[in-house]
Amino acid sequence: MANTYLLDIGTAYTKFGNSTEETPQIVMPSTYGFPRISSDAQQQQLLFGTQLDSHQGVLHREGLFPWGQPKNFEIIKKYLKFCFLQHSENIKGQNLIISISPDWSKDFLSSLITFLFQDFEFASIYAQRSDFFDFIGHKIKTGVLLNVGHYFTRIILYHNGKPVLKNGAKSKLAGRRIRQYLRSLFKVKHPYLESPRYTAFLTDIVENQCDLKLDLAEFIEQNTDLTKFQESLEIPQFQDTLLLGIERFIAPEILFSPELMSLKDKNAGDLLIDSLKDCHPSLRSEIFKNIVISGGGASYAYYPSRLLKKCEKIPLLSNARLLRHPSPQFGVWKGMQVAANPSIFEKYAKTATQFFAKL
Q: Are 172 and 180 in contact (CB under 8 A)?
């Protein structure tokens, strides 16, 4: 019997592994780079994953898998080949589930599936919207998805297993903004952190050192000695250290306070309120009964509480059931595991013969 593998293609990270595993075996940044050298042949040497940190003088490029239409298909193919090679098991003849963006064109998706069938000889492939997996991971079909991704925070409404609209409201107050704000906080002392070579270093701080507080002003008032939160971090590839203190608490505030960077983007609470207004009155009470919170930017412990604080004056939102996996960055992964059940997978997956017959 064939195993089923999961390929969660995200704007920040791509995750791959066996559906039987609780978390993916491969988690790789959705970025690439190439050496900053003059040789034409070497300039075309693409670097992925850990290669980006092990090489000197690398030019980093983000946006390999944007929420919108991907543009570098040849690089994407090399990226996926590298990703699969990091996996020790033989995937030939196995099944595959892919999470996709609803903004990707049918032509791109068709080219991607053709590549996966031809180069890796998967037995069957099931491609589905990532937001769909977010919902079935919580075993619901109707609700609101609040996805705090890398480039965007998005609101998507679902009713009986289908999106009410192809795309919902979105804002740039997402994971990437936290890193940008952190950079700005250290701009005077460490201006070189603006370089893309330190993106991984800052991302690690955002994901593992930062902490969103329920009330930052109150927290600072109660902790008069903020030096106890200071930690000295070695800056890679540079003979310098970064003293991380109150910045770890200030940086995540950008998710709810865009004025800190003089931005006009809407926070998640405002997006929810706008979506409630735009939703047909006959569906509001049913759809807004469940709010699924997903994405790496929503990993902070107090994120749901901060969201409710923004919506406390609106009963339909303040009384909603908030659903969030313990690790919301794996919310799509959990839903893909549900879809790997033979009763679901066999209903929607296509073999190579079935796929190419419809081209």
A: no
DSSP 229-271: G-EEEEPTTSS-EEEESTHHHHGGGGGT-GGGGT--PPPHHHH
pLDDT tens-digit series, residues 193-215:
998 888 889 999 999 999 999 99
90-99 mean pLDDT? 95
Helix (H) or strand (E) holding 74: helix 73-85
- Work out the angle at residue 175's Cα, subtended by the Cα atoms of residues 174 and 178, and round it to the nearest 5 degrees: 100
- What contacts 32, CB < 8 A, 6 or more positions away? 46, 47, 48, 52, 60, 61, 64, 75, 79
Please state, in angstroms and rounded to a whole number, the distance separating the CA atoms of residues 2 and 32: 32
pLDDT category at 266 given cuts 50, 70, 90 is: very high
Q: Bridge partners of 4?
A: 95
All domains of the chain in start order, with CATH? 4-136+330-357 (3.30.420.40), 143-173+265-324 (3.30.420.40), 175-261 (3.90.640.10)
242 in the Ramachandran plot: left (φ > 0), alpha (ψ -120 to 50) or beta? Answer: beta
Integer Cα distance of 33 and 328 in angstroms: 28
Beta strands in 32-142 (DSSP E): 32-35, 58-61, 95-100, 124-129
Q: How far is CA 330 from CA 149, 201, 203, 208, 269, in A?
A: 12, 22, 17, 16, 22
CA 130 vs CA 11, 156, 203, 326, 334: distances in Å: 11, 11, 23, 18, 11
Q: Residue 224 to residues 15, 185, 220, 229, 230: CA-CA distances in angstroms?
A: 42, 20, 6, 11, 13
CA distance 145 to 156: 5
Predicted TM-score of the model (pTM): 0.91
Q: What's the pLDDT tens digit per position in 313-326? A: 999 999 999 999 99
